[in-house]
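Summary: Need help interpreting a holo structure output

Steps to reproduce:
1. Submit the protein chain below together with the SMILES for zinc ion.
2. Request a joint structure prediction with the ligand placed.
3. Inspect the structure token block that comes back.

Expected: a single structure record containing both the chain and the bound molecule.
Actual: see attached output.

Input attached:
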Amino acid sequence: MPLLNNALEIQQEATQWRRHLHQIPELQYDVFETAKFISEKLKSLGCDDVVTGIGRTGVVAIIHGKNGAGPTIGLRADMDALPIVEATGLPYASKTAGKMHACGHDGHSSMLLGAAKHLSETRNFSGSVALIFQPAEEGGAGAKAMIDDGLMERFNISRVFGMHNLPGLALGAFAACDGPIMAAADKFEIAITGRGGHAALPHQTLDPILAGSQLVTALQSIVSRNTDPLASLVISVTQFHAGDAFNIIPQTAKIAGTVRTLQADMRDTAERRIKETAAGVALASGVEITVDYQRYYPVTKNHTRETELAMAIARDVAGVKNVDAKFPPMMGAEDFSYMLEARPGAFIFMGNGDSAGLHHPEYNFNDEAIGHGVSYWVKLVETALA
Ligand SMILES: [Zn+2]
Ligand SMILES: [Zn+2]
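--- attached output ---
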């Protein structure tokens, strides 16, 4: 029993919704037209309650099962697009220059709308389902904004599930893993203040470029000498700005970069060692160094029971050979991590086939995947709330 009997029918309708959303990409929290389209559609599909304005522009729809008594599970889609000039040449390409649905959030929203249609018509479950449409996944922590607005308590959500399409994973395939599946993403900015002066009189200066160069090199020894080789840590220096003239030792230098980790203790180690290393270089070279370490999205960490459930549903929908339950974690980040910190749940990938990569100007969500995604959502609800 793979896809839902009416999967193709829902896919055809949801494809129209998806292509409409694709034409009206909006960024961050400014997803006004997108949220309006989604909330009106949810009402017309017969959801019991549709609440807007959670986490500024987030939308939550509630559907009660045949037997209303029982827990509520949350299914999450994201709504925001990216500041990219679309280069797909599609007839339904973005109508707003410089904005584009290049991460497939138009597809995620449309699949959850498709699930809303089926679930509100059939109601073949106990308890309730909360359909969560969040703004600002792309760097704005919209999931956190909805949680801070009382998402979990207000709708009494006990478990949460998320899904993201993945280019390169076969159409109709699913993949996930227990534990960390996506990385924490942090940013560091380092300011070095020395004493500028004539390049021919270096002994009268405190050279921020030399100190900065030593620091960049020393930071690479954190991964190679301070952490377990089998644990995952990325420290990338991505910016180094200093100087304006060939014959002047500048007064200041600025360095910035990112840290990616899959475990909380590695994250703590990275932050601590970056600060200690900077302090050591400052002491050795006589310059002043300040480190501003900013923690962004936490690790997206799947919970064991919910991951097993999600994988069982995926096998039911896609067949055993099309499901990878030991998918290697990715070092990208995802703000569904905040929801998995608040409640047990699972985040899975769904195949987008052989398409351009996420955030690429030629990327497009694969409408053929909609039937698979909707079938997954519906069977997940009917099984988790049996
Ligand atoms: Zn993205
Ligand atoms: Zn995305």
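--- end attachment ---

Reviewer comment: The radius of gyration is 24 Å. The longest strand covers residues 67-78.
Status: needs-info
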